[in-house]
């Protein structure tokens, strides 16, 4: 395992050696462990109560996968398509995810711990009742036009992300680090931003959001 730091968040992540992994091409009914999953297509597969552990997944097509009540643990995922997938009641822990597409993906009752999402696309993704149980960071991710509801994301790092037209409803983000992220057109009641950390350069976006949310009329003096 290795550690990395994003802002004030320190994450414990896997450090896999491809030479120690066995090539995996087929998705069996059992758990997948210590596998090298390169360029496979498991599009539309149905997974229930399965675990994927200690695997490196690169260039794979996992679009429209449906995964319920399982675990993703100690994995590295890079350049993979997970668009249109549905994750329900799974745990994602000690994982590094880079350059991966989650367009239109749905996360329902998902638990995150020590997970780094770097340069990923979550546009039009839905997060419902997602919670963090440890360090979690999103860096350089596109989160636009998504919908997050009833999520518990205290202390999460959302650094240098595009939050344009992201809709937040009944979310808890206290202590979340949003420095460097674009807040323009973020759609949320102000109480969802209670206790977040911003940079001085983001105050104009926050002011604009407050004016729009409170329907304040700004007029020139006569």
From TrEMBL:
Task: Give the transmembrane ranges.
Answer: none
What Gene3D superfamilies does this protein's entry cite?
E3 ubiquitin-protein ligase SopA
InterPro entries in the record: 5peptide_repeat, Pentapeptide-BTB/POZ_domain
PANTHER family in alphabetical order? BTB_POZ DOMAIN-CONTAINING PROTEIN KCTD9
The name on file for this protein is Pentapeptide repeat-containing protein
The record lists the organism as Micromonospora sediminimaris
């Amino acid at each position: 395992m290795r550690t990395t730091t994003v802002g004030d968040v320190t994450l414990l992540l896997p450090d896999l050696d491809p030479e120690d992994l066995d090539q995996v091409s087929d998705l069996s009914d059992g758990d997948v462990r210590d596998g090298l999953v390169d360029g496979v297509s498991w599009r539309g597969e149905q997974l229930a109560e399965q675990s994927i552990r200690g695997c490196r997944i690169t260039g794979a097509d996992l679009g429209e996968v449906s995964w319920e009540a399982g675990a993703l643990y100690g994995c590295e995922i890079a350049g993979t398509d997970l668009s249109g997938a549905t994750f329900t009641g799974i745990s994602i822990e000690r994982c590094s995810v880079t350059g991966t597409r989650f367009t239109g993906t749905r996360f329902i009752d998902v638990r995150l711990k020590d997970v780094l999402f770097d340069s990923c696309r979550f546009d039009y993704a839905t997060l419902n009742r997602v919670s963090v149980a440890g360090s979690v960071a999103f860096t350089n991710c596109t989160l636009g036009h998504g919908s997050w509801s009833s999520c518990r994301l205290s202390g999460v790092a959302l650094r240098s992300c595009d939050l344009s037209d992201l809709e937040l409803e009944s979310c808890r983000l206290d202590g979340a680090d949003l420095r460097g992220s674009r807040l323009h057109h973020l759609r949320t009641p102000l109480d969802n931003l209670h206790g977040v950390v911003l940079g001085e350069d983001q105050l104009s976006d926050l002011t604009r959001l407050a004016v729009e949310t409170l329907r304040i009329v700004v007029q020139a003096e006569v």
